[in-house]
Amino acid sequence: MLKSKRALPVAGAGFVVLISFIYSLAGTIAIPVYPIFIKNLFNNPAYAGYF
What is the pLDDT along the chain (51 residues), one digit of tens a residue? Predict the structure, then answer.
């Protein structure tokens, strides 16, 4: 097993986890909005995003 004298930087790990959680939460909330937006643009039912 290889041993390294340098440790991984963990000072900003909590910040990275928080940012990734916010991005995943925002994506989950925004997914149902896209078909409504497309329907308003083209004035017909939109099924995009639900493949």
Answer: 566 566 666 677 888 888 888 888 887 776 766 666 666 666 666 555 554
DSSP string, the chain: ----SSPPP-TTHHHHHHHHHHHHHHHHHHTTHHHHHHHHHHSS---TT--
- With contact defined as beta carbons under 8 Å apart, do 48 and 38 qualify? yes
Hey, where are the domains in the chain?
Answer: 13-42
Side-chain-side CA neighbours of 37 within 13 Å: the count stands at 7
Q: Would the pTM of this model clear 0.90, i.e. be above it?
A: no
